[in-house]
Amino acid sequence: MLNEHLSHIKEKGVEEGKKLLWIFLYLWVLLGLFAVHRSIVLNEENLFYHQGFAVINAFLLAKVVLTADIFHAADKFNDKPLIYPIVFKSIVFSTILISFYLTEETLLGMWHGNTFAQSIPALGGGSLEGILSVGVIMIFVLMPFFALREIARDIGGGDKLYELFFVRRTKYAPQQS
User: How far is CA 124 from the centre of its chain?
Assistant: First the structure.
């Protein structure tokens, strides 16, 4: 009985670890590209420094996404056509990620001795329009991620989606319900 329970916990841990890995990789690519873009636009020389922060932030934000997902933060439209859960999850999770980022940066600034007002990051330039533009960009950036996750859920899991992308190239026949 105990071995069966430990085996179940191990399987669940491996499954959650795979989810975390894919979320991390997706966010790392995005944050890494944003860091490269910022380095080019601002003509900064510290590209590798910013990539290090992209890795750390991708891991932290991946944990936030996985935790919100465990608590079913955006499962409202799971039985609707794919466009509804994809758009809804993109909106909800972009809001969560932006809120977490603002909180993290504010607390980090206060840790370094700044006041609360000085610690609030100037996201998108600090104006309401800038923050909204970052929000819209995040929504569209998250759409492919959630589209793939919804498709994986419909075809029977992430392993089947991985198989379709990286293992075999046979014609897919949907399961009969």
Answer: 19
Contact 88, 74 (CB under 8 A): yes
Give tens-digit pLDDT for 64-113: 888 888 888 888 888 888 899 999 999 998 988 888 877 877 787 778 77
User: Alpha-carbon Rg of the chain, whole angstroms?
Assistant: 19
Cα gap 19→132, rounded to integer Å: 29
* 105: CB partners within 8 A, 6+ apart: 119, 120, 121
- Position 53 scores a pLDDT of 80
Q: Which tokens go with 46?
A: 């510290």
> How many beta carbons lie within 10 A of that of residue 64, not counting itself?
19
Q: Tokens representing 165?
A: 């992308």
Q: Which token pair is 98?
A: 């932006």
Q: Is pTM, for the whole model, over 0.90?
A: no
Asked if 84 contacts 70 with a C-beta cutoff of 8 angstroms, the reply is no
Cα–Cα distance measured from residue 175 to residue 177, given in angstroms and rounded to the nearest whole number: 6
Residue spans of the domains in the chain: they are 1-54, 72-170
